[in-house]
Structures are given as structure tokens and as C-alpha cells.
Prior knowledge:
B: 139 residues, 0% strand
Amino acid sequence: MITKMSHTSLFVLNQDKAYDFYVNKLGFKVNTDVVMGDTACEDGSEEQPPAGGFRWLTLNTPEQPDLEIILMPVVGLEPDAQAAIRLLLEKGLMGAGVFYTPDCYATYEELKAKGVEFKSAPKEQFYGIECIMSDGCGNWFSMTQPKEH
Amino acid sequence: MQLPEDIYQRIVAAKLFMDEHYHESIDLGEISGQAFLSRFHFHRLFTRIYRSTPHRYLTRRRMDKARDLLAQEGLSVSEICTSVGFESIGSFSTLFKKETGIGPQHYRNLRIVQQQQAKAQPRTFIPHCFIEGYKLNRQ
């Protein structure tokens, strides 16, 4: 039985820029921010990671501490797969999910004041009030205030 | 019912004022003044929009910041208490324990141990499927 999601990954073109967007603008919390490879292999395996390392950066939305959103750089895949993902990110075509807000109009005004780019302003839909924003790193999200029943 | 756009902008301005000045001794009159609304009107609209009273929102903001600071080494618990805007270490500790389930010092110890472990043994925090799938060992 699966009961919930604990991790989900989001490809980003630039982790520092993504950090600024999700933490400083949206107010997400850093769960884990650690570099793999700046320490010796701790599990005893022979494979040594190179200097510099890979940054494992995960965030939580403020009221969902048990779901880690991984800000994943485009690495480790076949070159053509990486190029395909980068192309989609560069065109801003990765639709990554829906964020909940208690008031779409107010959050839209707040994020607009913080410089967040929106693809559409709040609009009434069958399921609530929704606007579409871009993270500036290749992904777009719906921000939705669900209809109260 | 949707409110006029300028009302949202004024309420948001007051919220951002709280986000910026949470560590100061600010009261409802000062906060509602940012929105150019009476205290009563502001309180009603803020609570409707954010599902939280301004006082509760401000307290939550202070607690969030306290948690961030407790996760870092440097300031003592009592210094953190005052630096985020609480006036009494007793009420801060009580509220912290009520919300987090453990006291501030205990929380700090756990977070610091967790961070040390993450730094020393990052693989204990990264699902193996990601290490394999993205060849993270070879990055």
C-alpha cells in the first residue's frame, strides 16, 4: 500500500537561481543542502566522487514538511537525453505541478511584487481560481486556490 | 467574492511589512497602517485572505525564523528568542514546545547532528535510485 509521496524531482537549469526563486521568493524551506563528493566515500565503496561534487538540494513547502522537492541539475544522463531536457527547460515547457494557495489573488499580487513572472493572471476555473507562474529555471506551475464546497 | 485589486495590494503590503519587521515590537495599529485601513477592517480582511489572524501570522513568522536560526550554530537560544521578536524566553520555549513537540535546545541539538551527518554521509539522505539513475558518484 502506498500512502504518500516523500520525494519528487524537478529539473532546473541553475540550482543557485532555483534556490533564490523557491526559498527567497516563494518562502520554501531548505530540507537538505549537501554536496556529495567533498568527503571521502563514506560507504566504503571504491568509487571516489570527483572534487566539487554534486549538490543534493531539497526543499519543503511551508506546510508540507514530509515531501522533499529535489532541485535537480541536468546531469548524469546520456548526452542526447540531457540535451533534450535542457531544450525543454530553456523553452520553459516543463509543467511541473500545482501549488496550493489559500488566496490566489493575494499571493499573485505578493509574488508579482517580488518579481515572479506569470504566464497568466488569476482566473476562475471550474475547480477554483488559478494562475500560471514560471520559476525562471525552465518550469511552469499552476498556483490554485481550490473552490470551497 | 473577489476583492478590488488595490485591497489585495494593500493587504499584501502589510503582510510584507510583517515579513520584514517581525523581529521588532510591532502592533496591529502599525501593521494596519501599512494597508491604510482601520485595525478592525484590516484584521477582518487579513484573516479572510490568509486564514490566520495577523497576530497568529506574526507569531508563526517568528517561530519559523527561530527554527532557521536554531539550525545554525552561533546565537544562543535566548539570543534567538529576542532576535526574532519574542520578549520572554519562557513564553518562547513554551510556544516552541507546543508547536514543535520538543524544546528549542533539543531541536537545535537534533538539527545540528542531522546536518553533521548529512555532510559526513550524504548518501544516507539521498535515495539510492537517484545515485544510480543520475550517476551521482561520477558527477
